[in-house]
Amino acid sequence: MLDLFAGCGGISLGFQAAGFRIDAAVEIDPIAARTHALNFHGHEPPEVLAQHARSRDITSVEPGEVTADLGLGDPERAFDVLVGVPHAKLTPGSGAPSCARWQTIRLPTRLIRAATCTCVTCTTSG
């Protein structure tokens, strides 16, 4: 499972409880990214944990970059499930750049096209 806008992993935790393996996450906040990594990959060797803990900007990260960094292979085959729940702070009037809302709508579509998923959940908050 790939969790976009992952935060510290609330959605990932639900999917893990349902039996899914948490393969990767994309989160821009460095503290949240590190927390997600510790929550779901704390058992990994330090160099693997460090890659999971790296913050990534969803508006600029490429699918192949994520899968290459984490040793997951071809992005088209790396994930069975892609989940994206954008943060409310990315909505207009939140102080985020004016293009942030458009990019968060467009980019997950690009990521979805790169992956062959059995389930995609994308919602907006706020």
Q: Which structural traits does this protein have?
A:
4-stranded parallel sheet; single chain; 5 helices
Supply the number of helical segments: 5
Strand content: 5-15%
CATH architecture: 3-Layer(aba) Sandwich
Largest sheet: 4 strands, parallel
The percent range for helix content is 25-40%
Identify the quaternary structure here.
Answer: single chain
Q: Class in CATH?
A: Alpha Beta
Counting DSSP E segments of at least 2 residues, the number of strands comes to 4
The global form is globular
Count of discrete domains: 1
**Rg over CA atoms:** 14 Å
What's the quick description here?
The protein is α/β, with parallel strands linked by helices and 126 residues long. The protein contains 5 helices and 4 strands; from the N terminus they run βαβαααβαβ.
Plain-language structure description:
By secondary structure, the chain is of the alpha/beta class. It has one domain: 3-Layer(aba) Sandwich (Rossmann fold). 40% of the residues lie in helices and 11% in strands. The protein contains 5 helices and 4 strands; from the N terminus they run βαβαααβαβ. The chain is globular, with a radius of gyration of 14 Å. Residues 94-107 have low confidence and may be disordered.
